[in-house]
Please model this.
Amino acid sequence: VATAALTSSTLPAAPVTSASFTATALASASLSAATLSSATVTASAFAPTALAAAAQSTSSLPASAVPAATVPTATVPTAALSAASVASAAPPTAAPQPPLAEGEVAAAAVASESSPASPYELRCGEGAGSSQCYLPLDAASFSVRGREYFADGKKAPSARGASELLAVELFRAKSPVEAVGSRRSAPSHTLQQRTASPLASVFVVSLVIPAGSGGVLQLVLYFGVLAAAASGPAHQLLRAFTAPDTSDAWRNGRFKIIPGVEAGPWIVRKAVGNKSTPAILGKQLKQTFSSSPGVFEVAVDCNSSPAAGRIVSMVKSQARHLAVDLAFLIEPQSASELAERVLGCVRISHVSLANGLIPAYCGTEGEDE
Model:
């Protein structure tokens, strides 16, 4: 790249100092990027590499490093630069990274999903500060009832979540889409293809939020329940919760949310809480339950309580400024059901609810509308 930069313009035969070399190389690199023919290399591919190489030369070349005899006095046309000489300027190989620990591989695979698989899916973000996306969370960031909770009242960080968050949908609809996770085009049918961890089933949480003018926003979370988590008290609670003969009254008394605002205005953080105020959803909000082979769904009407409606309205108005964390659990209510464990969790990161950014749901014939 340094050779390409130097030969792209006529240089004097006098010795070249480090400072003058850098300035010339930078100018030449910019010129080369703009004038190279598309058959050789595109400007966007060449310019960053050439500029980086030229900048690096400031510290690596002393004043005597380039003798006068080595600097050509004739002009070499830029178009004569061969593709091979540009291609040889490959960036240095990154240092090898340590392997992920067992249990982190699947989470990393989920985090690398940067593009949605359907028009309704939010993309998976790549780190704190990402916007218009969701992020998987570590279940240990939520405190839950410990093994001796009914004796000592102590909470502890949750063990690894019983599921992986593998897809999130967000769309507008004229009315709530029922059994949204069981429709033919739902992500629930492709979750196993998105993770290397064997899944036992799919657990769907559908949050129905009023959108004004009689319509709704629907936030749908798809959790793949891990086959490896199919043991212990938390799994037994999940099996009881999803059993076909379990009453809705029992489910309404158990399904719990732990909300928190990681980033956002103080007034919203105060209203929502900071992962310190869990709530049994069925005590205040209307919930419906549905199932299909391998899929169980909880739909929560977030406007069915005046108090909840006020908080939801506040969150909606500030949504693009917020990073909201949510954990879902099935609450243990006896000592034999402890310790409590997060079923699934998510961060919704700086999502603008503007009409142009949230797709409108359009069900196909034979599905939901």
Remarks:
- Residues 1-115 have pLDDT under 50 and may be disordered.
- The longest helix spans residues 18-35.
